[in-house]
């Protein structure tokens, strides 16, 4: 498979299938991250589509000082946040899960275990939805998307020190939201 730089060069030379390969390579990852970020599968889908269109239109402005995914993610992130601000009312994370049916399925274990896992997953999603946007974005990029601090700093255009401190605060916010939920396991 060709690397991103080759695909970008080919796309800039008019090969639409090269850009299609970039879309195929990154669309699922981008969608999953944005769905967690904005709490709406529809909003994430629309933002990803808009981001790819904008990336294609502005591909010649890509300076290659960062990875293509970082540049694309920044476009998609801005699209998602802008769309989210325009849309009222916001949909809860639980409503999104119920409507989309997206829930990891564990094929082993008794049904009680599966039910408990589903309840906990819903509680974590609800707690994550209560974390502030600026902190949730960093938390998702780091913990869900497994991005290194440097990439998060580049995506969000923030110093690494700010990323580290906001991640720390995001973890504290999430812990506070989950305090009552998981306290029963400690005893």
Strand and helix map with partners:
Blueprint lengths: L3 H9 L3 H23 L2 H17 L10 H19 L6 H8 L10 H20 L2 H12 L4 H8 L3 H27 L1
Helix pairs in contact: 1-2, 2-3, 2-4, 2-7, 3-4, 4-8, 6-9, 7-9, 8-9
Describe the protein in words.
The chain is mainly alpha-helical and 187 residues long. It has two domains: 4-86, RNA polymerase sigma factor, region 2, helix turn helix motif (Rna Polymerase Sigma Factor, Chain: A, Orthogonal Bundle); 103-179, Arc Repressor Mutant, subunit A. It is built from nine helices and no strands. The N and C termini lie far apart (52 Å). 25% of the residues are buried.
Short summary of the structure?
With 187 residues, the chain is mainly α. It has helices spanning 4-12, 16-38, 41-57, 68-86, 93-100, 111-130, 133-144, 149-156, 160-186.
């Amino acid at each position: 498979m060709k690397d991103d730089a080759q695909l970008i060069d080919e796309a800039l030379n008019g090969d639409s299938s090269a850009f299609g390969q970039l879309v195929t390579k990154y669309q699922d990852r981008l969608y999953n991250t944005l769905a967690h970020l904005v709490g709406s599968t529809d909003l994430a889908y629309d933002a990803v589509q808009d981001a790819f269109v904008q990336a294609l239109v502005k591909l010649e402005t890509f300076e290659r000082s960062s990875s293509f995914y970082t540049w694309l993610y920044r476009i998609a992130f801005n699209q998602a946040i802008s769309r989210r601000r325009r849309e009222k009312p916001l949909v809860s994370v639980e409503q999104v899960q119920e409507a989309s049916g997206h829930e990891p399925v564990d094929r082993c274990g008794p049904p009680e275990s599966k039910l408990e896992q589903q309840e906990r997953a819903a509680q974590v999603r609800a707690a994550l939805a209560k974390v502030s946007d600026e902190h949730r974005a960093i938390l998702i990029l780091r913990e869900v998307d497994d991005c290194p601090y440097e990439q998060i700093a580049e995506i969000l255009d923030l110093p690494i020190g700010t990323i580290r401190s906001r991640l720390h605060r995001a973890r504290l916010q999430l812990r506070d939201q989950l305090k009552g939920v998981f306290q029963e396991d400690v005893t």
